[in-house]
UniProtKB/TrEMBL annotation:
Belongs to the actin family. Signal peptide: none annotated. It comes from the Eukaryota. This is Arp9p.
Length: 476
């Protein structure tokens, strides 16, 4: 009981860290939930150079247009700035969890995104042992912990984050790093697309126009789209999806209009066509959202926010007259000229991950064990819609080979199933975004309850073997 009460969990994804102290039952939600981005005073302010800013303080500084360099320690699936990451860890331990590092007695579990390189093992161990004075350390991979959370041995873990997503296979309780696929698509891209859709809605634009006195109207619309996503107003309408309706804004031939000399008539016709082709408004989908002191009417356009996850090429159609977020620029750049990581849809990322799994006979098993996690899973109806999108990879009819031999093709997926967190974990019910923390809690109970110390690194082992012992034990 004492060791369970003195266990620290630090669980990462690329854009977020959750942490708590204690793994005793009943399992609890995180005490800390903070963005992984770090701010630092720019070189112009020499007096403050070196001071890092985190969390809400960073958000306020960026909103106030202060001279701040924003650093993303995790980028493109790897750690890019260890100094910033160490400063963020110290902020979590000292400022948020109030841990006295001089008398640190907490056994520590650190979960990092896949893949974890040898440098990541060694640098993490060096920081926690030498700077944070931890007595014992276990380093694990987030996809494995997600599998522990739902209680399966084999799965594909689909993490849909803020700025990027990943699909990582887990086979026999071991992550397959060579089959991990990263994509430059996430919630920020969906928010950018939603802002574009809102800018085409006259009711929304007219309501927000009074707020644009000191700012560009598109900037206000984008801020409103961020509010809709953050406050949970977005969801996927199953009825609309099943209708199979595709809402397209069409194309406008400006050259033809100029030649024919009827510019005004064509512009008006195009405007009316956009309004008539928009999804029909339903009373139950129409809400008034409070935003900066006013009530903004929003129809079912908010049910289309997820579309870039299935069709990233939609981002090229956005014509907002404000600078796009850096991750959106990276996604468009990846679509145009390629590069790593690519910008592919969630179904395509999962398909590529399964194709990299060997032996081939294990691939069909993975399609039957999908686990979604990440902040996007909070949106109601998103997971069923993504599962429907995966149906193109499922063999509905027997193949010719199957008809000849009388058996289904073992390589081809036959069914698709998404797992959820068991209901008996009350605090984590319907919170797949917290599945990594739940899995870390379960894994830490197993690892640190073994007094032989076979699955974690003690301070004595670190003092004898140095940082390299972290890779030797952690990778095993």
């Amino acid at each position: 009981m004492s060791r369970e009460a003195n266990t620290l969990l630090v669980v990462h994804d690329a854009q977020r860290i959750v942490a708590r102290v204690g793994i005793q039952e009943p399992f609890q939600r995180p005490e800390v939930d903070i963005s992984t981005r770090v701010g630092r005073r720019s070189a112009a302010d020499n007096a403050e150079r070196g001071a890092y800013i985190f969390g809400d303080a960073l958000d306020k500084a960026v909103a106030a247009d202060e001279a701040i360099d924003v650093i993303y320690p995790f980028l493109d699936g790897d750690v890019q700035d260890w100094d910033a990451l160490a400063a963020l860890w110290r902020h979590i331990l000292v400022d948020l969890l109030h841990i006295e590092l001089e008398n640190n007695t907490l056994f520590t579990m650190v979960a990092l995104p896949t893949p974890i390189s040898r440098d990541a093992f060694e640098n993490t161990a060096q920081i926690f042992f030498e700077h944070f004075n931890t007595p014992a350390l276990c380093i694990s991979e987030v996809p494995l912990l997600v599998a522990y959370a739902v209680g399966v041995l084999n799965a594909i873990v689909i993490d849909i984050g803020l700025e990027e997503s990943s699909a990582v296979p887990v086979l026999d309780c071991a992550v397959v790093p060579t089959a991990a696929v990263l994509s430059r698509i996430g919630i920020v891209h969906c928010t950018w697309w939603l802002a574009y859709l809102l800018s085409q809605d006259e009711a929304v634009v007219n309501a927000l126009r009074p707020l644009a006195t000191n700012a560009h109207l598109d900037a206000v619309v984008y801020a409103f789209a961020q509010t809709l996503v953050k406050e949970g107003y977005v969801y996927v309408d199953a009825d609309m999806v099943q209708d199979g309706e595709e809402y397209d804004e069409g194309t406008f031939d400006v050259a033809a209009a100029l030649v024919q000399g009827r510019e005004r008539d064509v512009i008006e016709a195009h405007k009316n066509n956009k309004q008539s082709s928009a999804p029909p408004s339903k009373t139950k989908d129409f809400v008034h959202v409070p935003f900066r002191g006013i009530q903004v009417p929003v129809g079912n356009v908010r049910t289309r926010f997820y579309e870039p996850l299935l069709r990233p090429q939609l981002l090229a159609r956005v014509t907002l007259d404000i600078p796009s977020p850096p991750c959106v620029k990276s996604a468009l750049h990846a679509q145009e000229i390629g590069g790593e990581p690519p910008c592919v849809s969630i179904p395509e990322a999962v398909y590529q991950a399964t194709r990299l799994v060997q032996p081939m006979g294990r691939r069909a098993l993975l399609w039957d064990n999908l686990i979604f996690t990440g902040i996007a899973t909070r949106a109601q109806g998103l997971i069923p819609e993504l599962c429907r999108a995966f149906s193109v990879f499922v063999a509905n009819d027997p193949t010719e080979v199957a008809q000849l031999v009388g058996e289904p093709n073992p390589v081809q997926a036959r069914t698709i199933r998404a797992h959820k967190v068991p209901d008996y974990f009350v605090e984590f019910k319907d919170r797949l975004d917290l599945a990594p923390l739940l899995g870390a809690t379960i894994y830490a109970k197993l690892v640190f309850s073994d007094y032989s110390g076979r699955n974690f690194i003690s301070k004595m082992q670190y003092n004898e073997g140095g940082p390299s012992v972290a890779f030797a034990i952690g990778s095993a």
